[in-house]
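The passage that follows is intended for readers who have already worked through the single-chain material. We present the inputs for a multi-component assembly, then the predicted structure in tokenized form, and finally a short commentary. You are encouraged to pause after the input and sketch how you expect the pieces to fit together before reading on.
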Amino acid sequence: MESLERIIAEHPFFAGLESYYTNLLTGCASNVRFEAGTYIFKEGEEANEFYLLRAGKVALEIFAPQRKPIMLSTLAEGEILGWSWLLPPYLWRFHAHAIEPVRAIALDGKCLRTKCEQNHDLGYEILKRFAQIMEQRLEATRFQLLDVYAVGR
Amino acid sequence: MTMAAAATTTETDPMLPQPYSVREVLKETSDTFTLTLEASNGAGVSRFRPGQFSMLWVFGVGELPISISGDPAEHDRLVYTVRSVGEATHSLVSREVGEGVGVRGPFGRGWPVEEAQGKDVLVIAGGIGLAPLRPVIYEVLRNREKYGRLVVLYGARSPRDLLYRKELKAWARQRETQVLVTVDYGGLSWRGHVGVVTTLFKYARLQPARSVAFACGPEIMMRFVARDLETNGLARENIYMSMERNMKCAVGFCGHCQYGPHFICKDGPVFSYERMRPLLEKYEL
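Having made your guess, compare it with the prediction:
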């Protein structure tokens, strides 16, 4: 059976991270599974963790009154789910819906925030990696907003 | 590496439409149709290279530049996938089997498919942009041993806008071939990817140093795609895109399709990102 530390070290999100840090992270990590159809978290709930996706697919959904949920994007193997644990008020902004059976590593946000406060080098490494994910997703969202295939409709 | 693109080949007067008739009309989506044409005189059709286009004349209505979406190895037909967005395209897709269409061409420089031999081929399509790239996929699959991996990344507005659904599944079953599909807006029953086409790059297992990318779709989509490919390590000269402007004569006389120093009809429609990059970010060009 693969060790948690090895799985964390090999996940693309933590590529190149020194083993000292992956060892620190492992203390906050656990293996989790979600059945297809279940919600991993819902908007407004406390954001106490984030997930390194190892298998399966998760849809990020948002609700608007009197409408069906809107699927904003999907995330799959090798990606990160959730950054609301990182910034106050530590509340989820979307629903995360497992649309396939999901295997992931959950990292305890409170545990990690404490370690980041104690070790700012670790905190900076984590923040840099999340900033890159945020930048990529913001860019993709802008591209999506352009609705580029709608010309003539 | 610089790749010379395919040369234009026309055997007849390029300004004279040849009589063709409709053999088949296939409805792909609510507004997009694939037309198969055959020469009315029973002769074979003009040979074409992937990425070339024809001028299709609907008599009494007008003439349209349409990319060829069929298999270059099928010499008895020309296949076009057309989205009905105006009077001329609506009239074209409304042709009945047996009715006539005038065809000029093929025109333009296509995808440098042969020069991509030995490399991984990355096909990135958005919306109806899959149509001009389908001949590339046919060509690579027919000569499978001459190429590395074939990766097809396809983005559409919604699941109901996806073209060539059966073929996408069939291509995905071929060896050394990866097909990933995404939509910008997925309904709740959709179980595929949701997000713009560039979000598929992370699943594509790219080997940038040995890859050539062919991209086709709305111009702004190709700009995002090319920029992200470059960020992922592909050299600008190994990224190709098919450009579109209002074409009339198709042979570089009229100037309607001028784009900076280029005529899209004659110098393109396929260009390297290296050549297009200075123009893509200019306003109102």
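Commentary: The longest helix of chain B spans residues 130-142. Confidence is low (pLDDT under 50) at residues 1-10 of chain B. How closely did your sketch match?
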